[in-house]
Write a structure and sequence with these properties.
Elements lengths: L2 E8 L7 E7 L6 E10 L2 H7 L9 E2 L3 E9 L11 E4 L9 H4 L17 E2 L6 E2 L9 E5 L3 E3 L6 H4 L5 H12 L7 E5 L3 H13 L3 E6 L2 H10 L3 E4 L5 H7 L6 E6 L4 H10 E9 L13 H7 L2 E4 L7 H13 L11 E3 L4 H10 L5 E4 L1
Parallel strand pairs: 4-8, 11-12, 11-14, 12-13, 14-15, 15-16, 17-18
Antiparallel strand pairs: 1-2, 1-4, 2-7, 3-5, 3-9, 3-18, 5-6, 6-10
Helix pairs in contact: 4-5, 7-8
Length: about 350
């Protein structure tokens, strides 16, 4: 039988979110119902509310979550009721051209639940990133559930479901940061600080955090930044070069998603260095670069989707590093909030007062 639970929806573009009753069906073949324990408030949820993703309102928001599997449908063998899981939005298909080439982190046909959760009047909801986790229980494809150590704090490891994983993966998986590298990270929110932490894990010796907010720069030092640059007070490109022997960084992670910061990233890297764009631009944004500079500087210009992660590989590994005290996921959790405080959490994003607000159930 279906269940009725409380959840947060965005009913109209730009309107405040609301807490209402959500109808969650029993899991069908390949699906699972997860009792959510914690869900981070991510900028992507705000983009959904503002109509920046698509116009398929109403949305069931939330996607950066951890919880316990309550029930599974027919054919599900990888997870079972009682498993503690982090939800992911890249449930790989195993059969598309990327998967067949052995690069499932680029899967072009990721799975979502076939059924829809609804409002009480039957209106179908569009779950954010195919998850919809600002809700007491959610219906997902079983492949979106990644088992991790149940002793881990849900509020912390749930952040691997999106922003923190995107940043760590941008540095390690996409950027290929390795021991001895110099790394610059532009934008020190949750994703950027994830990139800083990832660079530190990989053994980078120079890690330069760049932002316009001194509070965020101080947070970045806590994640492993060796140097900071306030972009309001210094020329970013010249400052990065000054900290890297005049050359520029081996890897520059752009975690803002704006033309002006991407241009800084392009010129702040060393010859044959790598730029990784993990900040998400809006559709109208464009950039113009001299083609001779693109050719002459060499290296690689990459985009990082979800940190090019493979959840079954990366989530358990990073959870274990967290348990060992080698990855401080707790430091990303600025505050724990109730379900009816999501709208206030969106407001705090604009003031830069939080890395992550996390809804606790």
């Amino acid at each position: 039988m279906s269940q009725r639970v409380r959840g947060v929806i965005a009913r109209e573009k730009g309107k405040p979110v609301e807490v209402t009753t959500i109808v969650v069906p029993d899991p069908g073949p390949g699906e699972a119902v997860v009792k959510v324990q914690a869900c981070g408030v991510c900028h992507t949820d705000l983009h959904y509310r503002e109509g920046g993703i698509n116009d398929e309102f109403p949305f069931l928001l939330g996607h950066e979550a951890a919880g316990v599997v309550e029930a599974v449908g027919d054919g599900v063998t990888d997870v079972a009721p009682g498993d503690f899981v982090v939800l992911n939005w890249r449930a790989v298909c195993g059969d598309c051209r990327a998967c067949r080439r052995g690069k499932p982190w680029y899967c072009f046909a990721t799975h979502n639940a076939a059924q829809r959760m609804t409002l009480e009047d039957g209106t179908e909801l569009s779950p954010a990133l195919g998850i919809g986790a600002f809700v007491e229980k959610t219906l997902v494809h079983a492949g979106q559930c990644t088992k991790v150590d149940p002793s881990a704090r849900a509020a912390a490891v749930g952040l691997l479901g999106c922003g923190v994983m995107a940043g760590i993966g941008a540095a390690i998986n996409t950027g290929g940061v390795t021991r001895g590298d110099s790394v610059a990270v532009i934008g020190c929110g949750g994703v950027g600080d994830g990139a800083v932490a990832g660079a530190a894990l990989a053994g980078a010796t120079t890690i330069i955090a760049i932002d316009t907010d001194d509070r965020k720069l101080e947070w970045a030092r806590g994640f492993g930044a060796t140097h900071t640059i306030n972009a309001r007070e210094a020329d970013v490109v010249e400052a990065v070069r000054a900290l890297t022997g005049g050359h520029g960084a081996d890897v520059v992670v752009e975690a803002v998603g704006r033309p002006e910061t991407y241009r800084q990233a392009f010129y702040a890297r060393d010859l044959a260095g790598t730029v990784v764009l993990v900040g998400v631009p809006t559709p109208e944004m464009t950039i113009e670069l001299p083609l001779l500079d693109v050719f002459g500087r060499g290296g690689a210009l990459k985009s990082s989707w979800y940190g090019d992660c493979l959840p079954t590989r990366d989530f358990p590994m990073l959870t274990e590093l967290y348990r060992q005290g080698r990855l401080d996921l707790d430091a990303f959790v600025t505050e724990e909030i109730a379900l009816d405080e999501v709208e206030q959490a969106f407001a705090k994003m604009h003031t830069g007062d939080v890395l992550r607000s996390v809804v606790i159930f």
